[in-house]
Amino acid sequence: MKITLLFPFAALAFCAPSWATPPDACAILTGAELNSIAAGTVESVQQRKSGNPSECAYIDKKRGAVLV
């Protein structure tokens, strides 16, 4: 009886991380962190696509993408 109850709980614990919300791409890497790498060229941050997967663009003064 204990083995039959153990299986559903183990299966539920295994698939529970799939319900978690996906990370936001703009929150993982900020403009300030990228400026330290790209020598201060990032002017603004634009979220291009939300959901899973999300997409974020880091733009310089001339509206060119530094990183997408």
Short description:
About 35% of the residues lie in helices and about 20% in strands.
Question: What structural category do the secondary elements indicate?
Answer: alpha+beta
How large, in whole angstroms, is the Cα Rg? 20 Å
Strand order of the largest sheet: 1-2-3
State the helix count. 3
The residue ranges in which pLDDT falls below 50 over 5 or more consecutive positions are: none
Shape call: elongated
Chain-averaged pLDDT:
75
For this entry, give a set of tags.
68 residues, 37% helix, alpha+beta
How would you describe this protein?
With 68 residues, the protein is α+β, with helices and mostly antiparallel strands. It is built from three helices and three strands; from the N terminus they run αααβββ. The protein has helices spanning 2-15, 25-28, 31-37; strands spanning 44-49, 55-59, 65-67. Strands 1-2-3 form a three-stranded antiparallel beta sheet, with no helix packed on it. Strand 2 and strand 3 (65-67) form a beta hairpin. It is elongated.
Which helices and strands appear, and what pairs or packs with what?
Elements: H1 2-15, H2 25-28, H3 31-37, E1 44-49, E2 55-59, E3 65-67
Antiparallel strand pairs: 1-2, 2-3
